Amino acid sequence: MTSRSERIRTRLMQVFSPSSLEVIDDSAKHAGHAGASPEGETHYTVKIVSSQFDGMNRVAIQRAVNKALAEEFETGLHALSIKARSETA
């Protein structure tokens, strides 16, 4: 069984072909908070740079990343901090 981190990484690579991608599990920082799970894998930070974001504003990029990860949100991903930019930004 693959971890949520691996699934997030795989999905973002498939959809955005980023030149840079970092997926950070922040779940331990949120233990006891709403949406946190004792097993973890609920809170993440994604740092991504992709030419797919060229011409998109910040809100459009956030929506695109959230849409790409919709299945993860449906299966327990609670919070996602997105630090994204285009290649030209």
TrEMBL record:
Pfam families assigned to the protein according to its UniProt record, in alphabetical order: BolA
GO biological process: iron-sulfur cluster assembly
The protein's name: BolA family transcriptional regulator
Species annotation: Henriciella mobilis
Family: Belongs to the BolA/IbaG family.
Signal peptide residues on this chain, from the entry's feature table: none
Lineage of the species this protein comes from: Bacteria, Pseudomonadati, Pseudomonadota, Alphaproteobacteria, Hyphomonadales
